[in-house]
Amino acid sequence: NAFCGCDRLQRIATPLKxxxxxxxxxxxxxxxxxxxxxxxxxxxxxxxxxxxxxLLHMESWRTEMxxxxxxxxxxxxxxxxxxxxxxxxxxxxxxxxxxDHYKAEHxxxxxxxxxxxxxALWKAKLDEKEDNSAEGRTKKAKVD
Length: 144
Known about the structure:
Layout: E1 11-14, E2 41-44, H1 48-54, H2 59-75, H3 84-143
Parallel strand pairs: 1-2
């Protein structure tokens, strides 16, 4: 609870991580930023989320992820001080869930594309064998 009641804290930088903030069993809540009335901005540390987002297949996914990441700084200024930690945790969970969802969709699309490519190569090979067989029959017919 290092920041609990810190009324001058305006901005934090944090990694995007599940279970980053421990639950306080004595108070039955997350209270790391309880009483931090001025806390309005959360910045994410590390670039892993940025790299992941830029590699997503669809531009609409990238746009939605950027909007989700920026959403915290839009509603946090209007969040009551006693709810700020819970709001940050909920936002982090939402961002992580969306990243996981889009990564899974991205992998599904890649797998589908690989399957289509394998089928196309397999068909091309069959067509090539068929063409070679037809050529062989034509040559035998001309020799006779």
